[in-house]
Amino acid sequence: MPQLPTHRPRRNRKSQIIRDMVQETRLTTHDFIFPLFLIEGHSQQVEIHSMPGIFRFSADKLIDEVGRCVELGIQSFAPFPSINDGLKDRLARESANPEGLYLKTIAEIKRQFPDVVLMTDVAMDPYSSDGHDGVVDAESGEILNDATLEVLGQMALAQARAGADIIGPSDMMDGRVAWIRDVLDSNAFSHVSIMSYTAKYASAFYGPFRDALDSAPKKGDKKSYQMNPANRREALRELALDEAEGADMVMIKPALSYLDVIREVRDNTHLPVTAYNVSGEYAMVKAAAQNGWLDGEKTMMEVLTSIKRAGADAILTYFAKEAAEVLRRG
Ligand code: PBG
């Protein structure tokens, strides 16, 4: 006679109340950082074709959107600008223009919502005529690491002056965390944090974002600075450097195909760990839901829960607003 089981894990699943009691991971709106897309103009609100439910807003509309999110309990935002082609150049000079679209809007959001946390993006691509995150050598096409640091430092400083709470270098140049920390500290911005994109992979999942900002590289790809998706140990090397250079928080990006990396980083640092649930991950769920192939809402909550379970303390996600609505309904 086969033995009947003594140990029955199903007992802990027998009712909703017990399931809730033993639930290990819970999402709250405090977990979310909501990326926002900013465009020129007035009264503009344009849905991004490959990201249903996500819009590119002119500054006035973006501020309304921040207000709606705050109502829902979302308090942290990561704005990204779409810059007119005429303002782009090799050295991304527009990125440090305090009167430019991005910095003026950052300052205005902080004026109207002093308590919200703004994480600004440091990378050249939205302002670069080459569409790269670094300075491109005109002859060789190489991405010049150390020449880029100079640009990133000025960009970060301008963002701090505009009122950024957290600087988010997403460029993957070597040494940029230390460089930016030094520029901030020597300009009386020692209170401004750095959330480093520690392990940012050269991923196909960024496609919809590049459409949204028209920021795809004009030539070549980003593999000489973003990480190879096949590598995990390399993330720990980047982590050690970012810690040594003074990062306050570290990030893994994308999230969903990199849950193992999130866990690995979580287990190897005392710093807060965040994950970026990127545009393509959002688009996948939306596309399947629109076809009726998946339950969009349940899939969204499962995706976000899995990222937190893997070890993320906070999640940058285009789902933030929709998930906050679900959480509010309870
Ligand atoms: C570039 C940047 C990218 C994203 C955020 N910052 C794209 C890239 O590296 O080409 C992607 C975010 C997303 O896909 O949601 N500095």
TrEMBL record:
Superkingdom of the organism of origin: Bacteria
Catalytic activity: 2 5-aminolevulinate = porphobilinogen + 2 H2O + H(+)
Pathway: Porphyrin-containing compound metabolism; protoporphyrin-IX biosynthesis; coproporphyrinogen-III from 5-aminolevulinate: step 1/4
Keyword Lyase annotated: yes
Any Pfam family: ALAD
Gene3D superfamilies, A to Z: Aldolase class I
One GO molecular-function entry: porphobilinogen synthase activity
InterPro entries noted in UniProt: ALAD, ALAD_AS, Aldolase_TIM
Keywords: Heme biosynthesis, Lyase, Porphyrin biosynthesis
UniProt EC number: 4.2.1.24
Keyword Lyase: yes
PROSITE patterns, per database record: D_ALA_DEHYDRATASE (PS00169)
Assembly notes: Homooctamer.
Similarity field: Belongs to the ALAD family.
Protein name: Delta-aminolevulinic acid dehydratase
Organism in which the protein naturally occurs: Hymenobacter yonginensis
